[in-house]
Amino acid sequence: MSSELLVDLGEEPATAQLGQLKLATIEDQQWPADESTLSKSETDISQRFDGGSPHLPWDDPFYDIARHQIIEVAGDDNFGRKVIVFNACRMPPQHQLDHQRLLLYLKGTLDQYVESDYTLIYFHHGLTSENKPSLSWLRDAYREFDRKYKKNIKALYIVHPTMFIKTLLILFKPIISFKFGRKINYVSYLSELEDVVKCEQLLIPARVKEYDDKLRASLKPTAQPPISPPRSAPLPNQVFGVPLALLRQGPDGDPVPVVMRDTISFLSEQGLEIEGIFRRSANVTLVKEVQLKYNSGETVNFREMEDVHLAAVILKTFLRELPEPLMTYQLYNDIVNFTSVSSDSQVTAMKTLVESLPRENYASLRYLITFLAQVSANSEVNKMTNSNLAVVFGPNLLWGRDNAMSLSAIGPINNFTRTLLDQQHLIFT
């Protein structure tokens, strides 16, 4: 992994230089050559895409964009930051895609998370002369993403960069700030992403995986990049990535896992008045050390570490690494379609859904939501209202079987979580 974009500008706003970028002499169709040699049928993925995804109701305002699955949300990275994925290979030919609506869809996705630290992963393979947007559109798009979007993006990973993308970044160098330029990283092989995020949660397109395999095969044996490590066998006292039912010590054991007990107990004492709690990332080395301690059966004392954000990230990581989400796959469709329930019946319907959960899921959800209600009660200080907490925890409480989420699924899940917080005193009685 490398960061090759050298930016020597000062800290002046990029927008002040946008007008100085001269594109008039560049024909939009005269892009730098791409190494990809795909046929039209390979590029036109819209002919093969299944539009019947449960994520995308046909009457969704962005159905025409979302159905291509160009933009996805894929949980949290190893630092506890939300991951947004952009798949270039899923962009249809230019005449079949409204790029302005694509921009609005991307902004709508980012709007859910820009107040928190987040990571953007761009899979470049599959961008060809047929589906590349114009240079002028890219310039205008960059103008749209003001400081609100750039402030908390902690890293932009460009996977499988070609000479085209490197040339493009050089061309745009005059309008890219020094601070943002340092966040751009080139990733040559998928295995390098493992340091940042678990690749299995990204739902990487098959074409991207195949291209990665070809790149590996073309290398000399001495130059082979490291292969992504296989999933290690569970430790005797494994806690992360283990079903809740297996974490209970016998039928009379505590249904709430020790990780949730430890983190929530500590955060209840020391985190309720921390501004932006659950929005900041943590040191990935410390996160791994704490996970290893839990998985080795050791006692973890967050009071000794005195790191509120570490405990917050551990709690979110535990929830996200569950083999099945806390609110279960069985309730997924009911929750995504919950907006169809009349407002007068929502509390009763929500109570029925929640009470249908397995005992350990219900107890853990109740314990978590009760705590989050305490966090929200201090929102004047910590700035974490029920709506803000729903944006952070919604995707960690429920996701589809494919791990990724479209914008049209995120909204209903977050709304359900917010209502759960608003009405928790009635639902958990």
Describe this protein's structure.
This protein is of the alpha/beta class. It is 42% helix and 7% strand. It contains 21 helices and five strands. The chain has a five-stranded mixed beta sheet. It is globular, with a radius of gyration of 23 Å. Residues 4-54 have low confidence and may be disordered.
Low-pLDDT stretches are: 4-54
- Total beta-strand segments: 5
State the secondary-structure class. Answer: alpha/beta
**Order of helix and strand elements from N to C terminus:** HHHEEHEHHEHHEHHHHHHHHHHHHH
Radius of gyration, rounded?
23 Å
Numbering strands along the chain, what is their spatial order in the largest sheet?
1-2-3-4-5
Kindly, what is the distance between the CA atoms of the first and last residues, rounded to a whole number of angstroms?
A: 51 Å
Largest sheet: 5 strands, mixed
**Beta-strand share of residues:** 5-15%
What average pLDDT do the residues reach? 81
What is the number of helices?
A: 21
Estimate percent helicity: 40-55%
What best-fitting shape do the alpha-carbon axes yield? globular
Summary keywords:
429 residues; alpha/beta; five-stranded mixed β-sheet; 21 helices; 5 strands; 7% strand; globular
What's the layout of helices and strands?
Layout: H1 15-18, H2 40-43, H3 63-66, E1 71-76, E2 82-87, H4 99-111, E3 118-123, H5 135-144, H6 147-150, E4 153-159, H7 163-171, H8 178-181, E5 184-187, H9 206-218, H10 244-247, H11 258-270, H12 284-295, H13 302-305, H14 308-320, H15 332-336, H16 346-355, H17 359-377, H18 379-382, H19 386-397, H20 407-422, H21 424-427
Helix pairs in contact: 11-14, 14-19, 19-20
